[in-house]
Amino acid sequence: RELVMDYHQEHLVRMANQIAGGVPTREDVAGQVSHHMKQFWTPVMLKELSDIVANKPDCVDSAVHAALAAL
Prior knowledge:
mainly alpha
């Protein structure tokens, strides 16, 4: 069964992928994404993104997967 995302969920996914694509250097992208999320994302946002990714893993960049695993 495919997860159909609402606007809020799509926005979280889009933000996470934009962060991964926009980090200043390409070294340790997952670490930079994880650091950004720890600083600026609420626990609720992180939980929601984790739940989305668990149900639809192909919706985010591999660096986002690694960042979530590091949190």
